[in-house]
Amino acid sequence: MKRILLVDDEKQILETMRRFLEKKGFETVTASSGKEALEVVDSGEKPDVGVFDIKMPGMNGFECLKKIREKGIDFPVIFLTGSLNKMAHMDELRAVGCTTEDMVHKPIDMNVIMEEINKKTG
Length: 122
Description:
41% of the residues lie in helices and 19% in strands. With 122 residues, it is an alpha/beta fold. A five-stranded parallel sheet has the order 2-1-3-4-5, sandwiched between helices. The chain is globular. It starts with a strand and ends with a helix. The mean pLDDT is 93.
């Protein structure tokens, strides 16, 4: 069973994604902040894919993934953004080894999330 790490500060979005993905047969681990996501991976959780909101208070999704990778932990990530301009995030995406193909716009279409997860998990 594939494990998905969901990171979003909006509880309703986090819960909607969790319920949808679990119904589709995925195991989920949730975090409502970048700090919580770091605690999850520090506890030994090794997700197959991460779905990270970009804009969160404290630590944004890019900063969170950078810190995770600095620990030597690597897994593909899909970023969630409310921005309509994917190019606005190019520098941050490059810094964490991602491209605009790794971004999904909010409001979230769960079928698009599923498609992206399936691409990353084979």
